[in-house]
Design brief:
With 215 residues, this protein is an alpha/beta fold. It contains 12 helices and 5 strands. Helix 1 packs across helix 2.
């Protein structure tokens, strides 16, 4: 693929492995299967999940919303957080090395729907597992756009407008990699090159094929 100067990565299921079923299981343990389903639905339908991912409410406010939506006021923050974080798996070191290598020839950016709880846990994981402090991790990227820090989330058009303007990127020079088609579809409306990633695929192989390079 010629003309690509910038790579824009989603975080979840592109760089870090996730398993949403693990959080669903933990919520079911706390609330029953039916209770977990209805609580999750209310958190999204009433906008609490969106507000948390765009930084409009704090972690403690989100956990309080969880208690209200579930009707389980006796649950403490740690019980909820444990379930909320269960979906986070690992970041293979080869993907960190991939980012480092790609930075030699490309602008590297992250565009992620994420919240304070997950971001904090991932930063702690990187420190513990690879001795990479948060600031060093952020330094792997020319720009890091976490939805809870910038106030926008995918697939809303605002987040792509914000990224392109803030980083001064030309859409036709960007390749955006995300595991959700709704996100890549929106990015494509801006003229951004896209790849909808299957988490079962090796991201290194994908990029080598798309960019015709060896990583």
């Amino acid at each position: 693929m010629e003309g690509i100067k910038h790579l824009v990565f989603d975080f979840g299921n592109v760089l870090i492995n996730l398993d949403f079923d693990l959080t669903r299981i933990e919520f079911a343990k706390l609330l029953t299967i039916e209770g977990a389903y209805h609580t999750r639905k209310k958190l999204f339908d009433e906008g609490f999940a969106n507000q948390y991912e765009t930084g409009r409410i704090s972690e403690s406010e989100f956990f309080e919303a969880f208690r209200v939506c579930s009707g389980r006021y006796e649950l403490n923050d740690e019980d909820i957080k444990k379930a909320w974080l269960a979906l986070l798996l690992d970041i293979p070191f080869e993907r960190i090395e991939m980012i480092r290598k790609l930075r030699k020839n490309y602008g590297i950016h992250m565009l992620s729907n994420i919240n304070h709880s997950h971001a904090t846990a991932i930063h702690e994981y990187l420190q513990t597992e690879f001795n990479i402090p948060e600031q060093e991790w952020r330094g792997h990227f020319d720009n890091m756009y976490y939805s809870h820090e910038i106030g926008f989330r995918k697939p809303d058009a605002d987040i792509f407008e914000f990224m392109l303007e803030d980083a001064q990127l030309k859409p036709e020079e960007c390749l955006f990699i995300d595991d959700l088609e709704e996100n890549t579809k929106m990015a494509s409306t801006f003229g951004i090159n896209i790849h909808t990633h299957n988490p079962k695929d090796n991201i290194i192989d994908v990029l080598e094929n798309r960019l015709n390079i060896k990583i």
